Amino acid sequence: YVRPGQIFIDHSASVPENVSKIATRLHSQSASYLDVPYNGNAAQAKQGTLTLMAGGSLDVFNKVLPLLRLYAESITHMGGTGTGILTKMIMQQLVALHSVAAAEALSVAHYAGLHESKLLSVLDSSWASSVMLRRDAPLMQSLLRNPETPPPQGQFNIKHVFDDLKLLMTDADIQERLFQQNKDAIHLPFTSTAYQLFQRIVNSGMGNCETAALVRLKDDIGTSKKEEPHHDAGAESVRSAVWQKYSPEKKTSEKRLARRSSPRRKTFIEKSAYKKNVLSQPQGQSLHEGPVESY
Questions:
Q1: pTM of the model
Q2: Label partner for 4 (CA 20 to 30 A): which of 52, 131, 153, 180?
């Protein structure tokens, strides 16, 4: 039962399309809705240090702000309904990229024989530092030193990041919004690579492991002959459908094809071939050829 004037605060990680539907339904019953995903864990909630990103009415947000401050330290109103969820996806996108980069960099350092603590000291004081590097580096180095030790499981695990990353890469509503805003900004090669790596390691059975387990990527799936890479046909079909709807490439291809078959281009090709034949003749020898049409 929904009472008029009620305010619903949603801390779950949902699909933006579902968030909009929930908000619309509650608004029709004179209630309010905020999507407020969080970054942190239970310990941080008890300490009051969570990070919150809220989407919805600013007036409603200001009403519940004193409540949110009881368990969160960084609280930001991002905009209308759904912007909180989108912000969380962008955050997880960077978490995934930083984690993969840290895993690869520390693997290189390990096999190159660099001193572990000295390396971390240098990285932490440089532009190469990141929260994920500081968080996972000690465990990553331990897993590299002890290849037989199974990676520990954790609350903030690989599948947790992958689920949000998958929404960003495969949700049709998000893909369509990206195309509508800027058709040239849809290509995400680095994120796509991270998504595929996370997907494969989840499929290998390590989804519940800490993100530091990414250093095992090479050993478990990177060079394994037992497991074929998983092809996500669903993600590809979503991007393909949106691309067909908005892409200017189809018209561009048709124009290119028309230019290739135009008389102007044929004349240019004929003249180029003629010049090539003339230049290939021995000096002093003439080439009998009719006049070439100008272009």
A1: 0.71
A2: 52
